[in-house]
Amino acid sequence: MGAGVTSAVDPLRRVETYLDAVPRVSGRAEDFGPLTLFVADEGAPFPYCARPAVVAPGRVAHPGPGPDDVWRVRERQRRLGVPESFEWIGEHAPGLRAAAGKAGLRVWERPLMVLDTAGADAHAAAPPGLGAEGPGLGTEVPGCGRSVPGAVVRVLGAGDPALPGALAVPYLAFAEAPPGGGRGSPLRLEDAVGLYVTPWTLARARDRVRAGHTVVAAALDDAGVPLCAGQLLPLGGTTELVGIGTLPAVRRRGLGAAVTAALVAEARRLGLTTVFLTANDERAAQLYARHGFRTAATACFAQPAPGGGAG
């Protein structure tokens, strides 16, 4: 299967099945009829949310959730102390936007993109030998850092000393007001590691890397400090690219493109048949299109609107 990464047979159904299955690896599922609430275990790679219930491979419940269903899940999320967060593929649950709005949630949309190998960049092809960890430190990805002077792109092994920093990079890359010192400095990254990467979460991440449930790629400076990082979360023949973020002080140097190329190369090496991601906006979607991704659907997200209480 290594020659191709996407399939012409309904990739969105594979994505739907994947999004229902992945949270069950590091969490539990609670049944709310047409909705499923996923609750992450400690050390899970990312927070989980509620999604439309999958009733058959790639197919969600119909009729879809109503406002009362959304309210019940919100109340449960509050009791558990987890984010009141919902996600879904807009085309698969078209009525959920209105139901979420009536239940006091703010809804926004982003492009959901699937990899199209016919249009992929040549440099995204898997280099020979990628993935051989040796002593557990990881593997440099030849070519992916060629346009980024002073950076090396590596798929990190479980024992790689850069792994804690790579796990912390997204917290700094996407935070509106990140903690710590100067913007993008190694000290600030160390602060983020201390805040967000506990010994338990690091141990779980290492276990996931060893098991192949998580693939972490990072662009490192000459001192081995991660400047940009991202992940694959493979399950079956499908994977999502998640958390691709660059430290604010070193943006616009091509680091994100290099890490994306490394992750696509690793997905190819692993022979994954469906590879997808959610772009933050249309500008990001244009950048991912250079790597062969095409917009295939609408990713919808909902969280409490300002002043939206629990009924």
UniProtKB/TrEMBL annotation:
Superkingdom of this protein's organism:
Bacteria
**Which InterPro entries does its entry note?**
Acyl_CoA_acyltransferase, GNAT_dom
Q: Which parts of the sequence belong to the N-acetyltransferase domain?
A: 172-311
Give the stretches traversing the membrane.
none
The name this protein carries in UniProt is N-acetyltransferase domain-containing protein
